[in-house]
Specification:
Helix content is 22%, strand content 34%. The chain is of the alpha/beta class. A four-stranded mixed beta sheet has the order 1-4-3-2. A hairpin with an 8-residue loop joins strand 6 and strand 7. The longest helix has 13 residues. It is globular, with a radius of gyration of 15 Å.
Length: 129
C-alpha cells in the first residue's frame, strides 16, 4: 500500500549514522543518497533492501512531536539484534524485545527512540519456531 515514507531530522549526519547501525540487523541499508546539489537544498538518505529505498530521513523543516515507524523483522532474533544495535548507536530504550499479546498472539517487538525522539520499532509476527 505505501511505497515509501520519510521525515525530517534535526541533525542529518547523526541520524544517518544511527539508522545505518540500527537497521543493519534487519537487512536494511542506505540504498540512495540525495545531495543538496542534486535537489536544490534537500539532503537525504533512503534505506531499504538492495535497490528499494522504502524509508527516508533528511533535512527539512523541523517537526514538533514524534513519529512511529515499525520495520518488519524476519525473526525474533532480528528484533533482538535491532534493539541492541539501536541502543549501541545512541538510541534510547522505549520497550525491550518481547511479546505484545495485546496486538496479537505472536506479535514480538522492540521499541527505541531515535536521536530526535521518534519511536522506532522492529516487529516479527511469526510464531516462535
Amino acid at each position: 500500500m505505501i511505497d515509501h515514507l520519510g521525515f525530517s531530522v534535526s541533525d542529518f549526519a547523526r541520524s544517518r549514522a544511527f539508522y545505518v547501525q540500527a537497521l543493519a540487523p534487519l537487512g536494511y541499508a542506505p540504498v540512495m543518497d540525495v545531495t543538496k546539489e542534486q535537489s536544490g537544498g534537500y539532503e537525504g538518505t533512503g534505506f531499504g533492501p538492495p535497490g528499494r529505498p522504502h524509508f527516508w530521513i533528511g533535512t527539512g523543516e523541523a517537526r514538533s512531536g514524534s513519529t512511529h515507524v515499525a520495520f518488519a523483522a524476519g525473526s525474533r532474533a532480528a528484533v533482538d539484534a535491532f534493539h541492541r544495535a539501536a541502543l549501541a548507536a545512541g538510541g534510547r530504550d522505549n520497550g525491550a524485545p518481547g511479546l505484545r499479546p495485546h496486538y496479537h498472539e505472536h506479535y514480538y517487538g522492540a521499541f527505541v527512540l531515535d536521536p530526535d525522539g521518534h519511536n522506532i520499532e522492529a516487529v516479527c509476527h511469526a510464531p516462535q519456531a
